[in-house]
Amino acid sequence: MAVTGASGGLGLETARALAARGAEVVLLVRDPARCGEALRVTGRSGQLITLDLATLEGVRAGAARLLERWPRIDVLVNNAGVMATPLGRTAQGFELQLGTNHLGHFLLTALVAPRLAADGRVVNVASRGHLVSGMNWDDPHYLGRPYRKWEAYGQSKTANILFTLGLARHGYSAYAVHPGMVATDLYRHLGEADQAAVQNRPAGSEATVKSIAQGAATIAWAATVEGVASGSYVADCAVTMAAPHATDPEAVERLWTWSQEQVRERFPVRRMES
Length: 274
Known about the structure:
SDR_fam, Rossmann fold, alpha/beta, NAD(P)-bd_dom_sf, about 270 residues, oxidoreductase activity, 8 strands
């Protein structure tokens, strides 16, 4: 099993949970120097690959190292991401949140897809943040329109769900996960007011902040559960509903085609089982 963003937070806890179940876990990380704890908790099962999602060259190099060492991948967990960042751009000029959260993972998955086991799966970590915004096809990278950090984050999370449905449509087992509101390093770009607003939600509300272990539980569940339909959007270890703009069939196909054009990689289509 391979997990992006496994040096801390949800990725680290997911890797820990999967290793505890006997899985060999490959940690895909941007900064290997931060992975001491991840390697400790995964023990002998933990292996380390450097992969930078903010550059297509970094994704290709990391994927090549991964596939050189592992001829078969059972589960790919696309967990890494950024949230509510100031306006920034990847090496290719993509808006940072869309480029990192979706396009980097799209390319990684396309490169790994030929090595996915017949019963393998892809788990995309999404968010209820997708409710904030659908895809803005006229200017997805904020080249002309005013930048709004939460709108950009919502767009990237909508892309995660649309991508999951595209994978299912093209013959892969895939799940989109809302892990819940979890205070991790993902919050590092939030100001004090934003952090206070997030962490002071009413007890018992749907948006109550979870522990990292609670958030990772649904990711690990999606990586191992049987009998759940491919393309499902899940939260709290159960199937739930995403917003209509994140499940629209036309948007699913449009994102698939657009993403291939952006990363300059044709995604291999898997033959559907009869």
